[in-house]
């Protein structure tokens, strides 16, 4: 049986304007190059982690 591994990489929110959110998706240049509304991202909001420099 052949196994297929799925690697999940984090999507990073990079900014916000009146138009919506910008993000960096390491799996997709297309997704990284557009603006996302809150409604499109809402299902992922509960999974958000915050990283910052110490």
How would you describe this protein?
The protein has two helices and two strands; from the N terminus they run ββαα. The radius of gyration is 14 Å and the shape is globular. It is an alpha+beta fold and 54 residues long. It has a two-stranded antiparallel sheet.
Order of helices and strands: EEHH
Biggest sheet: strands, sense, closure? Answer: 2 strands, antiparallel
What count of helical segments does DSSP give?
A: 2
**Structural shape:** globular
Strand content: 15-25%
How are the SSEs placed, and which strands pair?
Blueprint: E1 12-17, E2 20-24, H1 29-32, H2 38-45
Antiparallel strand pairs: 1-2
Can you summarize this structure?
Helix content is 22%, strand content 20%. The longest helix is centred in the last third of the chain and has 8 residues, at 38-45.
Which features would summarize this protein structure in a list?
alpha+beta, 22% helix, 2 helices, 54 residues
């Amino acid at each position: 049986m052949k196994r297929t591994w799925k690697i999940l990489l984090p999507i990073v929110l990079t900014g916000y304007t009146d138009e919506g959110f910008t993000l960096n998706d390491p799996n997709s240049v297309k997704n990284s190059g557009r603006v996302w509304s809150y409604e499109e991202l809402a299902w992922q909001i509960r999974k958000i982690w915050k990283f910052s420099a110490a």
